[in-house]
Each structure stands twice: as C-alpha cells, then as structure tokens.
Amino acid sequence: MLYVDKFSPVPFYRQIKNQVRDAVDTGIWVAGRKLPSERELLTTLGVSRITVRQAFSELVAEGYLTSSPGRGFFVAARSPAQELHALVSHTEAMREGGVEPSSRVLTCEVQAASPAVARGLGVSPGAEVVYLHRVRLADSVPLTIQQVWLPHAVVPGLAEVDFTTASLFELLRERYQVQPARAETVISARPADPDEAGELELGEPAIALTVDQLTFDEDDRVVEFSRSVHNPLRLPVRISQSVATRSGAAGLLARASVERR
Fold first, then answer.
1. Residue 106 contacts by C-beta under 8 Å, 6 or more apart in sequence?
2. Is 177 left (phi over 0), alpha (psi -120 to 50) or beta?
3. Is the pLDDT at 248 greater than 80, yes or no?
4. How far apart are CA 151 and CA 5, in angstroms?
5. CA pseudo-torsion sign 54, 60, 65, 67
6. Spatial separation of the C-alpha atoms in residues 80 and 260, rounded to whole Å
7. What is the dihedral of CA 49, 55, 56, 58, to 10 degrees?
8. 3-state DSSP call for residue 56?
9. Which is nearest to 52 in space by CA: 29, 30, 23, 73?
10. Are 93 and 237 in contact, with CB atoms under 8 Å apart?
11. Cα gap 130→80, rounded to integer Å
12. Average pLDDT in the 2-16 region?
C-alpha cells in the first residue's frame, strides 16, 4: 500500500512516484493492475489531488502507467531491456521477451526514390522502391515509428503484404530468398517532433532515440534502408561486450543494440 512520510524532505509526489516505480520494477505490481483511485489516495494519504496527478502523470510519461478515461490508472505493459541485434526481427525479439508484437501500418506503397533514399539504397533517383511506414507495438503499446525503403526490383509484390503482423525479415528470407548478412547502424537521440511525441506517447521533455540503418545481403548488396524513432523508456537498450584475443592482440567484441524488424 502507498504511504507518505510527512516528515521526509522528499516531496510527496516523488514519494508516491518512487513507491509505484519500485513496485513495478520488482514485479510486485504486474501489468494490468489497477491503481487506487484519486479519491482513495486523497483519503488514505492525506495529500492534494495535484500531488497525486503529478506523480501519476510523470509515471505515464515514463511508461510505468497507462490511463483510461473514466477507469483510472493501470500498470503498463513494459518491454524488458532488449539485447538488440541488427539481423533479428522485431517480431522474434518481442516474442522472446514474452510480449505480443504487432504494427499499425501508416503507409505501404511503391514510390519513386528520392535522392536521399537512392543514395542509401545505391539505386538511381526516381527508381521504384517499396516504402513501409509503421508504428511498432508490443502488447498494443507503441514503441517505435519506423520508415523502411527497399528496392522494388528485389521485393516485387511486397507492398501488397499486410504488415499488421507480418515480419519483414521473415518475408525477405522465405519469400524472396534474400539473406540479411550485415548492417551498418547509426544510433543517436534528438527532440521528437509533435507527431512523433503523440504517436509514441512521449512525456516532456520529448526525447527520442533514433536509429538509421543500412542492411546488406550475402552479396554485400544494400537491400534495406531504414529510419526509426524509438520511445527510449519503453524500449530500454542493453549492450553486451566481451574481450577476445585474436592473433595475440586483445580486441573488443560488442553486440550493440540496434534496430529490430
């Protein structure tokens, strides 16, 4: 049960927030649990409505809680820290983490390559490419906004696929016999624009993790160019490193967290 120490120098809202976070992080409160109502908390804790709302609104922004108008606040389904790998699909990674993957498709069409896309894919400007724009979800919670371009000549008919549940990498391997072999990835962070912040349910400050990636097949041909924007609080990143010796010299081997398909 939540409580407030009236003699503590820690602000009341932060005491409430810290207790909820600890309960979720330790698994005491599981996804879907309904929190006490504002009225209950005002009575039991002896704090103001503003205090409760500040604690809960920050927890929503950080991905710990979700709110439902007229129903209250619930513990959010949060993704575990992901050991991301460039050549592992979003679908596979989410299922391994015990959550159900899906997508909300915004656009899937054949279009003419812009100069920037043409440079990325190594095709001529104006060449036909398949453009896939979708929001990636885990247990219906938005994690990532992803834009993907692929040479249409390599993946004819791809634009007709329903990507609500389909895995792009699985289709590449099984339908088109394209084997992704390596990837070049740039990861950074920036302020999200209003549309991105709304789609990903980012709180203030709305900072997003960005991932730009080129994927190559076994013939070292670029088969995919992608740009993604992540909610970093809902898709934590984990990077594993090890030291290996090669020909008597120590080298650093790292499996870096990168984009999921």
1. 133, 134, 135
2. left
3. no
4. 61
5. positive
6. 14
7. 140
8. helix
9. 73
10. no
11. 32
12. 92
DSSP codes of every residue in 5-38? -TT-SS-HHHHHHHHHHHHHHTTSS-TTPBPPPH
Question: What pLDDT sits at residue 148?
Answer: 97
pTM assigned to the model = 0.64
Does 205 sit behind a cis peptide bond, omega within 30 degrees of 0 on the bond before it?
A: yes
The C-alpha atoms of residue 93 and residue 257 are separated, in whole angstroms, by 12
Average pLDDT, the chain: 84
**Edge-first strand listing for the sheet containing 101-112:** 101-112, 128-138, 141-151, 222-230, 207-217, 180-191
- Rounded Cα distance between 179 and 182, Å, is 9
> Quick check: 258 pLDDT over 80?
no
Tokens of 157: 């008919």
For residue 97, is pLDDT > 70? no
Say what the pLDDT of residue 152 is: 97
Asked if residue 222 has pLDDT above 90, the reply is: yes
User: For 163-172, how does the pLDDT look when each residue is reduced to its tens digit (9 = 90+)?
Assistant: 998 999 999 9
Convert the pLDDT of each residue in 24-39 to its tens digit: 888 889 888 999 998 8
**Residues 206, 229 contacting (CB under 8 angstroms):** no
List, in order, residues 6 or more apart from 110 with CB less than 8 Å away: 128, 129, 130, 131, 152, 159
Residue 149, C-beta contacts closer than 8 angstroms, at least 6 positions apart: 113, 117, 120, 121, 129, 130, 131, 132, 224, 225, 226
Q: In angstroms, rounded to a whole number, what is the distance separating the alpha carbons of residues 172 and 179? A: 7
Q: Which residue, 251, 253, 206, is CA-closest to 229?
A: 206
**Six-digit token pair at 54?**
């500040």
Comparing 132 with 79, the larger pLDDT belongs to 132
